[in-house]
């Protein structure tokens, strides 16, 4: 989960704003900005005009709202995620549907259930994962209740 690792409290003081920039191939990359609490507040992608976007994060209690603006289309997508007491995402609401997440005691996502709305059609996809010693050993997916794939 992207949001699980967004905190940089050990490197950001309450009065500063930390910015990191890195590139993938010397031309395309990202700039990460952190707010005064050490949480990611903005990700700016650069160098790829087709897939580039800005992501802006806002925090309120146990909710993280992510706004994604696409450069080429000018389209903005917004999603709100609720964090559980361990600060993992427990649910997300998007324009096109919802997702819920379940974790094992070690913090690995063992089940994700997503519902998508396409016009009047609604579909549900579920992924169930198994781990041994931190390594993912299987993933079983269902689509509208029918097996979709099994990966081991």
How would you portray this structure in words?
There is one protein chain. The protein is mostly beta strands. The chain has two domains: 1-83; 96-152. The chain contains no helices and twelve strands. The two termini are 21 Å apart. The model is unreliable at 1-15 (pLDDT under 50).
Short characterization:
This protein has 152 residues and is mainly β.
Describe how the helices and strands are arranged.
Elements: E1 19-23, E2 29-34, E3 40-46, E4 53-60, E5 63-70, E6 76-83, E7 89-94, E8 97-103, E9 109-118, E10 121-132, E11 135-143, E12 146-151
Antiparallel strand pairs: 1-2, 2-3, 3-4, 4-5, 5-6, 6-7, 7-8, 8-9, 9-10, 10-11, 11-12
Please give the largest β-sheet: 12 strands, antiparallel
Mean pLDDT: 83
Strands of the largest sheet, in order across it?
1-2-3-4-5-6-7-8-9-10-11-12
Residues in helix, %: under 10%
What are the secondary-structure elements, in order, as H or E? EEEEEEEEEEEE
Structural class computed from helices and strand pairing: mainly beta
């Amino acid at each position: 989960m992207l949001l699980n690792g967004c905190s940089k409290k050990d490197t950001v003081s309450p009065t500063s704003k930390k910015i990191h920039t890195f590139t993938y191939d010397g031309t395309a990359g990202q700039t990460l900005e952190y707010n005064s609490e050490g949480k990611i507040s903005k990700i700016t992608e650069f160098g790829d005009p087709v897939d580039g976007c800005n992501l802006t994060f806002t925090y309120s209690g146990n909710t993280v709202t992510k706004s994604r603006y696409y450069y080429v289309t000018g389209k903005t997508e917004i999603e709100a995620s609720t964090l559980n007491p361990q600060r993992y995402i427990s649910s997300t609401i998007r324009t096109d549907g919802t997702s819920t997440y379940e974790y094992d005691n070690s913090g690995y996502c063992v089940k994700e259930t997503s519902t998508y709305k396409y016009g009047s059609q609604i579909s549900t996809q579920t992924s169930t994962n198994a781990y041994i010693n931190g390594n993912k050993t299987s993933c079983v997916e269902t689509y509208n209740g029918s097996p979709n794939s099994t990966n081991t």
